[in-house]
Specification:
about 475 residues, alpha/beta, Urease, subunit C, domain 1, TIM Barrel, 8-stranded parallel β-sheet, 14 helices, binds N-(aminocarbonyl)-beta-alanine, binds zinc ion
């Protein structure tokens, strides 16, 4: 078994930060303490000097879409390319969405996603499942998914005619998932309202990318947040709202997010793009605005302030990416009609560094908040803790050696995602991942990916506990 000693770093956990060394045997953290060199340097295969660096628990991106078939195409990052980019950016685990094809089974979706990932993924991964067609058969399959370690179920209130469930179906999913001790995740946007606006713009000949954003105003998110919260209350079902994008949406959820009751909890996730980019991107010349077509769309700077405040106050507990990359050629499928642009943005590589730079470095988040939002909270919520999201003896040795002072600039010329542009092109960041360790193995050293294909492991997850 390999033996790795990390010396002289500052360990950061969700509660604390302290100077200590870490000794790893095989895949697990064996010891944490001051001056471990005296005891272990002789037997170590490698000694990493982390002087001046933080040591974070490996990042967990709770929301990604690798190889997702969407509209007339498939997301351009495979499990190989997307998870490699994740590791380079300090994310050691992703939770990807296996989408049920309407009319087909949940089992078929899981089989499909296992085939996409197995032997290719280089970071660890788990699956959520997107329930897009609820029947008696689907109801019976929920217990089977949970037994197979897939314990969270996404429902859509948008994408009418494709993925959307109506309120009755949403309630039925909640009833069953609660019974089986899983967690319901919801894409909260009002699909009817959006379709009404899409048709209105199309009839008026308003077909450019910015009309994607205008057809999905924040009121569509706010209304859906209120409704899904009420449905969850009726079903007494734990609920996790994905990719929250607006101050209006947060405002609707806030009373319940602030009042932790004994009843089923409500949890909110946002994504890094909503924190650092705004809707002025849709005014870029020509078809450039298509790069930012995602659902929900980018919002205003005022929305960003609300989301940062939501993170700082603990109302929003997770920052993910909703990574779903499409190349410019794929975006052009909607060059004559914004509703045909495949939606989703690339970002899995930059979540940790963006959040550190824009959050911790700029004084909006403490180091502990950063670690909780990027790793500890998703590990706890999604049944991976304490193996993941924890720097403690016996935990998986998933660690990031992070230099808080290194400056760098994001560019498509140097990123590792399979996409020919970056939505963060030219952004200067302070703080960089120097090394990523996954289950005791150095998988990235100074930006170079060292993990062999298929090193990533499927993670069966525990039931939802509250
Ligand atoms: O535009 C997005 N977010 N694409 C990915 C699918 C989803 O709704 O999360
Ligand atoms: Zn969604
Ligand atoms: Zn998504």
């Amino acid at each position: 078994m390999s033996r790795l000693l990390i010396q002289n770093g500052t360990i950061v956990t969700g509660e604390d930060q302290y100077a200590a060394d870490i000794f790893i045997i095989g895949e697990k953290i064996h010891a944490i303490g001051l001056d471990l060199g005296h005891r272990f340097s002789v037997s170590a295969d490698e000694i990493v000097d982390a002087t001046g660096c933080y040591v974070f628990p490996g990042g967990i991106d709770a929301h990604t879409h690798m190889e997702l078939p969407l509209k007339a195409t498939t997301a351009s990052d495979t499990f190989a390319s997307g998870t490699g980019a994740a590791l380079i950016g300090g994310t050691t685990t992703i939770l990807d969405f296996a989408n049920q094809v309407p009319g087909k089974t949940l089992k078929a979706a899981l089989k499909d996603w296992h085939a996409k990932a197995k032997g290719k993924a280089v970071c660890d991964y788990g699956f959520h499942i997107s329930v897009t067609d609820f029947t008696d058969r689907t109801r019976r399959e929920i217990a089977e998914c949970i037994k197979a370690g897939v314990t969270s179920f996404k429902t859509f209130m948008a994408y009418k005619g494709a993925l959307m469930l109506d309120d009755g179906q949403l309630l039925q999913v909640m009833e069953e998932v609660k019974k089986q001790k899983g967690l319901v995740l919801t894409h909260a946007e009002n699909g009817d309202l959006i379709n009404f606006l899409i048709e209105k713009y199309r009839k008026a000949g308003s077909l450019g990318p910015k009309f994607h954003a205008l057809s999905r105003p924040s009121i569509a998110e706010a209304e859906a947040c209120s409704r899904i919260m009420d449905l969850a209350r009726l079903a007494d079902c734990p609920l996790y709202v994905v990719h929250l994008s607006s101050g209006d949406g947060l405002g609707r959820l806030a009373p319940k997010l602030c009042n932790a009751e004994k009843r089923a909890p409500l949890i909110a996730e946002t994504c890094v793009q909503y924190l650092v980019l705004d809707d002025s991107r849709y005014s870029q010349r020509g078809f450039e605005g298509a790069k930012y077509v995602l659902s929900p769309p980018l919002r205003t700077q005022s929305d960003q302030k609300h989301l940062w405040a939501g993170l700082a106050s603990g109302m929003i507990r997770v920052v993910a990416t909703d990574h779903c990359a499409f190349t410019m050629a794929q975006r052009r499928l909607g060059v004559k009609d914004f509703s045909k642009i495949p939606n989703g943005v690339p970002g899995v590589e930059h979540r940790m560094e963006l959040l550190y730079s824009e959050g911790v470095h700029r004084g909006r988040l403490t180091l502990q908040q950063f670690v909780n939002i990027t790793s500890v909270n998703p590990a706890k919520i999604f049944g991976l803790h304490p193996d993941k999201g924890s720097i403690s003896t016996g935990a998986d040795a998933d660690l990031v050696v992070f230099d808080p002072n290194e400056k760098h600039v994001i560019s498509a010329n140097s990123h590792h995602m399979n996409c020919d542009y970056s939505i963060y092109e030219g952004m200067s960041l302070t703080g960089a991942c120097r090394m990523t360790i996954l289950r005791g193995k150095v998988v990235v050293r100074r930006g170079k990916l060292l993990a062999p294909a298929g090193y990533g492991k499927f993670l069966p997850r525990k039931k939802f506990e509250y």
